Fold this protein.
Amino acid sequence: MKPNESDASRAKVLAAAFRTWTTVDSDPEPPVARIEIRYPPNWAFAATVSLTARQQQRMLTFLRDDLAENRPGYRTPEAAARVVAGLLSELVAAGTSRVTTADLVGAAPRIGRSRTWIAEHITDLIDGGQLRETRRPGTFRIA
């Protein structure tokens, strides 16, 4: 695939994801913003997605949180522990009853702490009863 084709494909996937998100998160209000998706090197047009005020606010909130979470060294241990608790809550809400060490280590940028801290925190979660060890090493049942 040529670089242009790859960029075009990525832009189209992003556009499809935004369209799906706005459709699934339907809002009867009129659009207040449009996201125009283009791709390099000539910035050819891929798609336009309209957002309502509520969708725009949700997107901005997500982006702000994502930016804050990915700042190096940003999280205090307490804040990181709250992020881990939120991740576990999200998994439970999605119907998942197990989590692996790799799942949490993969979320290190979101947690904002080192892999070592995450491994130590898993031990704290086991000791505190939030996680229970299973027969599979590195896999835990969410309590």
Summary: The two ends are 46 Å apart (CA to CA). The first strand starts at residue 31 and ends at 39.
